[in-house]
């Protein structure tokens, strides 16, 4: 129960609902068991009439009164049951809401390194399935536990007062009922988890198939995909049918064990009626109490299973909630950002990696300058972009902005001055307008149009039937690669950033569009700082300086002309790209 203690703060927060639920449970059970003596008196009245010891009219009046009392207490008990469920189950829903918000807020505060180590499916399960298991503990498990304790105390006390011997025989099968239900429910839980995994795998497969539908069709893999789906679907079906078999045996077992208790009451009670120890009404009263106890006692196994699952789930949730971000702001400074960015002997080694992504990198971009970083794949270009946005902190060395260590700046404040276009474009399944406006809160229509124009996107959008209201598919699947990149650029430009970081975001556009975008950027980013990362040397035309990276180290630095004259790595890359371009033109002709 250690991990579940984390929820005590929520139980304390909603203690009013919990106490009211406890009160409603007491009243519900008190009015519920009042029906027992009324049933006994009704049966005894009939017995007396049948024995000829009482007038029929008088007995009818008494039975009518007892019946009205039973009806009235049933209605009152039902009202308290409604309020019991409303308060306790409502409390669990409120805690579920708070817990999900806490988890999601915590997710947003965790660094990028956290998401490199954990897959999306696992994160989704913890905020959905695990929270649901916890809610079952906070709602049904607590409610039925309280109800069981109160009902057991009240009912057993009355039964012992009426006849201790018959009480003992009545409750003998109940522990066996608990053990059986606990065992069966554990099997159900295990099968349910297997089914959940199969369903998750099936959902993931379908999601990937839909997301990669272009690749699927271009390689004519539809039939294989259908066969894989059938195989996974059959696996899910077989496991679901296995669970159905266990469920079909569940309630017959419960009814059999409850029936055993009923037989014990009739057998032992019948002997005592013959001996004159108890009346016929007592037997009916005990059967009523048995039926009242059966489900709460039977639910004990279910409750235990729910608590176990909730403890495991809360442990998984706590594992993430106890993970804290390393990207803290030492002083929380919020000065006006001019954009002078400096890397001083910066080294970065990713977690669980044996090699260093960057090795003693030092450079400076003065406010208003444009620096281009080029290099082959895996040279560490994107890592510099991540560090400049402070998505990571360096393993060693210092990064400063306007002479202030980046760690001393308020993180959210600093990022509000930056515009980052990552190499891997991500678009939301929303309109083009909403995707561009994502870069700036309350962006006006004029700002959206201007950002789209600066990104070289406005002409494309003009040909869409819905234009800026065009709904993009998942991850922007309805757009081409170049169009997606330009939407991402527009999203950054609408922020009017003081520091713009472009991470190889022009790779999917043609040369003419690239020139158009770079021309707009030259105007937009005048007197502002730009960091352009690319493997295409045509993208570095705006740069005041160029840095060449190789294996995480700066190998060359200078202007485009200087590096060409030097005849080093940059010159070789330049020559290779010219040759490749000429080859492509000849092949096209």
CATH class of the largest domain: Mainly Alpha
Fraction in beta strands: 5-15%
Poorly predicted runs: 584-589
- The average pLDDT value, as a whole number, equals 80
The CATH homologous superfamily of the largest domain is named: ABC transporter type 1, transmembrane domain
Using only C-alpha atoms, the radius of gyration works out to 36 Å
Structure annotation, total helices: 21
Gap between N and C termini, in Å? 73 Å
Structural class, from secondary structure content?
A: alpha/beta
The overall number of domains is: 3
Q: Using DSSP, what is the number of strands?
A: 10
Largest sheet data: 6 strands, mixed
- Placed side by side, the strands forming the largest sheet appear as 6-7-8-3-9-10
Query: What is the CATH topology assignment of the largest domain?
Result: ABC transporter transmembrane region fold
CATH architecture of the largest domain: Up-down Bundle
Helix content: 55-70%
Shape: elongated
């Amino acid at each position: 129960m250690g991990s579940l203690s984390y929820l005590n703060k929520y139980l304390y927060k909603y203690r009013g609902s919990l106490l009211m639920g406890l009160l409603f449970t007491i009243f519900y059970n008190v009015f519920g068991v009042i029906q027992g003596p009324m049933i006994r008196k009704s049966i005894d009245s009939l017995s007396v009439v049948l024995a000829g010891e009482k007038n029929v009219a008088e007995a009818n009046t008494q039975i009518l009164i007892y019946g009205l009392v039973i009806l009235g207490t049933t209605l009152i008990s039902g009202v308290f049951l409604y309020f019991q469920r409303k308060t306790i189950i409502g409390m669990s829903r409120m805690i579920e809401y708070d817990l999900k918000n806490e988890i999601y807020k915590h997710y947003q505060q965790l660094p990028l390194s956290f998401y490199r180590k954990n897959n999306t499916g696992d994160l989704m399960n913890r905020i959905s399935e695990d929270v649901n298991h916890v809610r079952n503990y906070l709602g049904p498990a607590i409610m039925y536990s309280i109800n069981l304790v109160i009902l057991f105390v009240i009912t057993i006390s009355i039964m012992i007062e009426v006849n201790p011997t018959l009480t003992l025989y009545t409750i003998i099968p109940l522990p066996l009922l608990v053990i059986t239900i606990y065992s069966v429910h554990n099997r159900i839980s295990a099968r349910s988890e297997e089914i959940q995994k199969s369903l998750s795998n099936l959902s993931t497969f379908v999601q990937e198939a839909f997301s990669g539908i272009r690749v699927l069709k271009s390689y004519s893999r539809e039939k294989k995909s259908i066969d894989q789906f059938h195989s996974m679907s059959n696996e899910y079906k077989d496991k679901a049918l296995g669970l159905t078999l266990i469920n079909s045996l569940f309630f017959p077992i419960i009814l059999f064990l409850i029936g055993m208790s009923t037989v014990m009451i009739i057998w032992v009670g019948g002997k005592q009626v013959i001996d004159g120890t108890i009346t016929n009404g007592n037997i009916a009263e005990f059967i009523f109490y048995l039926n009242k106890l059966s489900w709460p006692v039977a639910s004990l196994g279910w409750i235990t299973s729910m608590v176990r699952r909730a403890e495991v789930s809360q442990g998984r949730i706590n594992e993430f909630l106890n993970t804290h971000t390393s990207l803290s702001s030492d002083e929380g400074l919020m000065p006006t950002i001019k954009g002078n960015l400096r890397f001083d002997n910066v080294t970065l080694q990713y977690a669980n990696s044996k090699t260093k992504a960057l090795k003693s990198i030092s450079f400076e971009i003065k406010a208003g300058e444009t620096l281009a970083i080029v290099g082959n794949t895996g040279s560490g270009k994107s890592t510099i972009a991540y560090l400049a946005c402070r998505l990571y902190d360096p393993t060693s060395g210092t990064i400063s902005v306007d002479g202030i260590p980046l760690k001393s700046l308020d993180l959210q404040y600093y990022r509000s001055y930056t515009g980052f276009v990552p190499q891997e474009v991500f678009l939301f399944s929303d309109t083009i307008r909403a995707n561009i406006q994502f870069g700036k809160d309350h962006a006006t229509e004029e700002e959206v149009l201007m950002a789209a124009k600066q990104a070289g996107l406005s002409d494309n959008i003009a040909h869409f039937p819905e234009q800026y209201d065009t709904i993009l598919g998942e991850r922007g699947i309805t757009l081409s690669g170049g169009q997606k990149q330009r939407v991402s650029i527009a999203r950054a430009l609408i922020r009017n950033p003081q520091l713009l970081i472009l991470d190889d975001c022009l790779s999917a556009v043609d040369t003419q569009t690239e020139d158009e975008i770079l021309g707009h950027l030259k105007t937009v980013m005048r007197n502002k700082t730009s960091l352009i990362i690319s493997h295409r040397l045509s993208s570095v035309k705006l740069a005041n300086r160029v840095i060449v990276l190789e294996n995480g180290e700066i190998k060359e630095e200078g202007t485009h002309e200087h590096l060409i004259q030097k005849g080093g790595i940059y010159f070789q890359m330049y020559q290779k790209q010219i040759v490749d371009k000429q080859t492509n033109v000849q092949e096209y002709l």
